[in-house]
Design brief:
This protein has two domains: about 15-40 and about 290-374, Aspartate Aminotransferase, domain 1 (Alpha-Beta Complex); about 50-285, Type I PLP-dependent aspartate aminotransferase-like (Major domain) (Aspartate Aminotransferase, domain 2), CATH 3.40.640. About 35% of the residues lie in helices and about 20% in strands. It contains eleven helices and 14 strands. It has helices at about 35-40, 45-60, 70-85, 95-110, 130, 155-165, 190-200, 270-285, 285-300, 325-335, 360-374, and strands at about 15-20, 20-25, 30, 90-95, 115-120, 150, 170-175, 205-210, 230-235, 245-250, 310-315, 315-320, 340, 350. The strands form three sheets. It has a seven-stranded mixed beta sheet, sandwiched between helices. Strands 1-2-3-13 form a four-stranded mixed beta sheet. Strands 11-12-14 form a three-stranded antiparallel beta sheet, covered by helices on one side. Helix 2 packs antiparallel against helix 8, helix 3 packs parallel to helix 8 and helix 9 runs parallel beside helix 11 (about 360-374). The chain is globular.
């Protein structure tokens, strides 16, 4: 048997990692400025994180959601505190796509409506409803296309308002900063307009924080830079620092009942311990507080690269838009300078999603390499 060939692979075999560094089988050291798609938040193999997981492994790794799990309550309390959202309810699952599926399901239950309004260039995952509300038709099978979805462009007020005239919109789902789509941000006025239309039409506002959450923008969730209140918030990636953990934050006014949602592995003992540990380290090392200065330094460095026409994103969810396609630049960074970066649907955009433990000298290393390449 062999793996199903669905991933284009770089010819690198990582075997060890520490903080912002990755090491391959030949002993080469790589600077990780991508974090495995924004998954690594507190750095690879953080010693306190590993200690917490090892301790929990010695106690209990897993039992089902048919018994009391005090670690779920502990994690919910820690999450409510660091996000400043103590009044939300929490449903835990395993992956970002699963969080999206459950958020859409909750919205449909709550409103008794079927249609979802989403945005062009948006990406929310590859499972059935998640890929249907994403703007990547080549990834959607005929089965996925059965979902009722209307897609409009960001900042298109008229099309958004017109879409609500169907009176069947269960939810609007939006990324505060589009990840795969190319790091376009939602403006505060447009965000507030979406919220207003949702309230007016008895629809749910779902904010997808899977990539932009876990403190990456300097606030725990990116929507918190704007004065909006989502009904549902999805999270994953950085909240587990590599351990599979995801969840949906659900407004306190949503009614729960037994059997409404379910998961076998979601919210297990080890997953909760991982989530709690990430929050403790974020707070102890004041990682979120350091992000604005790091972003400022990044933008200063970028201003000296003539081929960079724009810096996109916020905090440590950043993109460098060049005046040419970046595929060759990205490969040179990886193979010649040993630096991991990311791409996007925008072929001219280099995505930077490093561990939040990054320092200014690591940013300097990237721009020193770019000066030599471009």
């Amino acid at each position: 048997m062999k793996p199903f060939d669905v991933y284009p692979l770089f010819d690198i075999n990582p075997i060890y990692a520490k903080d912002v560094w990755i090491y391959d089988a030949q002993g080469n050291q790589y600077l990780d400025l991508y974090g495995g798609h924004a998954v690594i938040s507190i750095g690879h193999n953080h010693p306190e994180f590993l200690k917490a997981l090892k301790h929990q492994l010695d106690q209990l790794m897993f039992y089902s959601n048919s018994v009391i799990n005090n670690l779920q309550t502990d994690y919910a309390d820690a999450l409510g505190d660091i996000s400043n959202l103590p009044d939300y309810q929490l449903f835990l699952c395993n992956s970002g796509a699963e969080a999206i599926e459950n958020a859409l399901k909750i919205a449909s239950f709550h409103t008794n409506k079927k249609r979802v309004l989403s945005f062009k260039n948006g990406f929310h995952g590859r499972t059935s409803a998640a890929i249907a509300v994403s703007d990547y038709d080549s990834m959607a099978s005929p089965l996925n296309r059965q979902h009722l979805v209307t897609k409009v462009a960001l900042e298109d007020y008229k099309s958004l308002e017109k879409a609500f005239k169907s009176n069947d919109i269960a939810a609007v789902i939006i990324e505060p900063i589009q990840g795969v789509g190319g790091l376009d941000q939602v403006s505060a006025p447009f965000f507030k307009f979406i919220e207003f239309q949702c309230r007016l039409n008895h629809s749910c506002l779902i904010v997808d924080e899977i990539q932009s959450g876990s403190g990456r923008t300097g606030k725990y969730f990116a929507f918190q830079h704007h004065e909006v209140k989502p009904d549902l918030i999805t999270m994953a990636k950085g909240i587990g620092n590599g351990y599979p953990l995801a969840g949906v934050l659900i407004d306190k006014d949503f009614e729960s009942k037994h059997g409404l949602l379910g998961t076998t592995f979601g919210g297990n003992h080890l997953a909760n311990k991982a989530g709690i540990s990430v929050i403790e380290i974020l707070k102890k090392q004041r990682l979120m507080q350091k992000i604005p200065a790091l972003e400022h330094h990044f933008r200063d460095c970028a201003s000296n690269v003539s081929s960079v026409i724009k810096v996109k994103g916020k905090g440590l969810m950043l993109g460098l838009e060049f005046d040419l396609e970046i595929s060759k630049i990205r490969k040179k960074l990886l193979y010649d300078f040993k630096i991991f970066t990311g791409g996007s649907a925008n072929k001219r955009l280099l995505r930077i999603l490093p561990p939040l433990t990054i320092k200014k000298q690591h940013i300097d290393k990237l721009f020193n390499a770019l000066e030599r390449i471009t």
